[in-house]
Amino acid sequence: MSKLIVHGGTALSGRIIPSANKNAVLPILCATLLTRHPVRLVGVPEITDVKKILELFRSLGSQVEMDFATGILDIHHKDTLFDPARHRLPEEMRSSIMLVPPLLARFGAARIENDVQGCTLGAREIDPHVEVFESFGAKVHRGIDGLLITSTGPLTAASHWTDYASVTTTENFVMCAVLAQGESTLMNAASEPHVQEFCRFMQMLGANIGGTGTSRLTVAGVDTLRGGEFHFTEDFHEIVTFLALGAITGGEVSVRNSSPEQFPLIDRSFAKFGVRITHEGGWSRAQVDGKLKVKEPFTQHILQKIEAAPWPYLPVDLLPIFIALGVKAEGSVMFWNKVYDGALGWTSELSKFGAHAFLSDPHRMVTFGGKPLVPAEVESPYIIRVAIALLMVAACTHGRSVIRNASPIRRAHPRFVENLRSLGAQIEWDESED
Ligand SMILES: CC(=O)N[C@H]1[C@@H](OP(=O)(O)OP(=O)(O)OC[C@H]2O[C@@H](n3ccc(=O)[nH]c3=O)[C@H](O)[C@@H]2O)O[C@H](CO)[C@@H](O)[C@@H]1O
Ligand SMILES: C=C(OP(=O)(O)O)C(=O)O
């Protein structure tokens, strides 16, 4: 079990160049399988999920040249072969489900194992995906340990309205539609920055997509896709994470950010804890005047609150980062996760630090922040940014803390500990058995 050992209490300051967004990189990696031409990706992060997908591609016979030192991936799915009886898609990551459309397009069959749940955030349905596959004419068969999805010919265009704006379902819809015959329409499409980045990549391959960034996507099918070179942009999750780490420890961190137009709501969320974010010259900077303090709402007798939901709301994956700020900032805040029903069950870990946090129901947590904190040994659930939130609390608390089961961080954030050390943190991985 990978543990993080943190000697907290040091103000973290400095500059960070963030990596690419895992949730943009993974669907794009899956989509490379849709073209028989070479693709070059620039800025590919060295993270667990990327390595798992590249390993699968190698086992299918694709040409994969990955240089993590430069972040350049050259990939060519020319002599690629997939056998649903033999090959298993990577487990413990949600993105495996996005291999289905390209496998269907290339081989007429795909198989997914039962564990495409990813982070343990509560129910993560596959029904919206099944509806999409079926709307394009694919057949879905349930087996003992997974699903077999088949199609006898090219997919046919579909018009579909999803129950909710789902990130991976939207990406799967686009991948089914790009090579389908006719024009497809998706209503209630997700519009997160990573979904937009994914659509830009598809357009570079020659896909004909309208409505990127809105809740209505149209895709006119094309006969074939080309190759090309694509450069990833910065991950807003990393930007927020490092800004928050600076703020919670009383330091001052700047992070490179070429898309500040995505940040107004994120900035206002930081401001609720007394953190001022500024964007200038391609850099975002977090500053705290005095100590962290929850801003009182203008409306009297209500709790300050942070609501997370599909974009353009505050992204749910960022909620734990703000919960950590809520633990440190003096005052009370209600956090509302409108997406997941099992993402907040870690209040008992927070309380080991002396934090006061109350789980009101599966979707809502209230922090009573500003209480004295003590170092602690805590265990993270399999949720990337909960491990980071626990680390944030450890980093602002004097003394030695241990975050057990911290390896999910490696699923999304390359060189995380090295980056933190460059800001002055005393932190290290411990891989020893207990
Ligand atoms: C690889 C990838 O891109 N993973 C991200 C993707 O997962 P993913 O695409 O799996 O997330 P979805 O948007 O489908 O939502 C996940 C689950 O939340 C529930 N749900 C969601 C929205 C809603 O309005 N109502 C509702 O009930 C459903 O149970 C659903 O199964 O988007 C999530 C939500 O931004 C992020 O946490 C994940 O990091
Ligand atoms: C929940 C996440 O990833 P996944 O969907 O792969 O579990 C995440 O990136 O925070």
UniProtKB/TrEMBL annotation:
Keywords: Cell cycle, Cell division, Cell shape, Cell wall biogenesis/degradation, Cytoplasm, Peptidoglycan synthesis, Transferase. Pfam families: EPSP_synthase. It is found in: Cytoplasm. The keyword Cell wall biogenesis/degradation applies. InterPro entries: Enolpyruvate_Tfrase_dom, Enolpyruvate_Tfrase_sf, MurA_subfamily, RNA3'P_cycl/enolpyr_Trfase_a/b. Residues 7-420 form the Enolpyruvate transferase domain. GO terms for cellular component: cytoplasm. One of its GO terms (molecular function) is UDP-N-acetylglucosamine 1-carboxyvinyltransferase activity. It is an enzyme of class 2 (transferase). Its EC number is 2.5.1.7. The keyword Cytoplasm applies. Pathway: Cell wall biogenesis; peptidoglycan biosynthesis. GO terms for biological process: cell division; cell wall organization; peptidoglycan biosynthetic process; regulation of cell shape. It catalyses: phosphoenolpyruvate + UDP-N-acetyl-alpha-D-glucosamine = UDP-N-acetyl-3-O-(1-carboxyvinyl)-alpha-D-glucosamine + phosphate. Belongs to the EPSP synthase family. MurA subfamily. This is UDP-N-acetylglucosamine 1-carboxyvinyltransferase.
